[in-house]
Amino acid sequence: MFLYKILCSGNQKYIPYLTQWENIDFKKVQAEIRKVIEVLKQLEELENPEWERLKREWATSLLIRTSDPIIMACQQCGARFIFDETNPDYYTSEGLRFPERCLNCLEKV
After folding, report:
1. Mean local confidence (pLDDT), 60-75
2. Pairing between strand 91-92 and 95-96?
3. Is the pLDDT of residue 50 over 80?
4. Strand, helix or coil at 91?
5. What are the residues whose beta carbons fall under 8 Å from the beta carbon of 33, sequence distance 6 or more?
6. Mean pLDDT over all residues of the chain?
7. Higher model confidence: residue 78 or residue 68?
8. What is the pTM of this model?
9. Domain that holds residue 94
10. How many CA atoms lie within 13 A of 7 on its CB side?
11. In Å, how far from its chain's centre is CA 44?
């Protein structure tokens, strides 16, 4: 999740830290760090739709589903719903953003 948060920030200031981290971590993590560094370096050249597509693709590999579901209550209708922490729409450069409404209420808008 940390790498995904850095990726979503789009901030190249993290590249030196990622490079240092890459030198000391396991090979699988090193490969993911290298991918994030490369995308951050190329970010200025990417169009917004391509950037959004990349973030969605990376959500599946960098975000890990917790073993215990997070159950929330919709602020509009009161229904309970399960929060999907692997949905990249809930991650911003500031961090994780919890939804306030269930999917049914979101679809009605």
Report:
1. 75
2. antiparallel
3. yes
4. strand
5. 3, 18, 21, 22, 25
6. 79
7. 78
8. 0.43
9. 66-109
10. 26
11. 19
Question: How many whole angstroms separate alpha carbon 6 and alpha carbon 81?
Answer: 28
Q: CA-CA distance, 95 to 56, in Å (whole number)?
A: 16
d(CA 20, CA 1): 18
Same domain, 73 and 27: no
15 shares its domain with 60 = yes
Tokens of 95: 């961090």
Among candidate residues 45, 57, 65, the one with its CA nearest the CA of residue 7: 57
Cα→Cα distances 78→63, 87, 100, Å? 28, 21, 10
Angle between helix axes 27-42 and 2-9 (nearest 10 degrees) is 10
The one-character DSSP state at 101 is S
pLDDT digit string, tens, across residues 78-106: 999 888 776 667 766 676 778 888 888 88
Are 33 and 76 found together in one domain? no
Q: Taking a C-beta distance cutoff of 8 angstroms, is the pair 39, 55 a contact?
A: no
Rounded Cα gap, residues 94 and 47, in angstroms: 22
Q: How far apart are CA 89 and CA 52, in angstroms?
A: 10
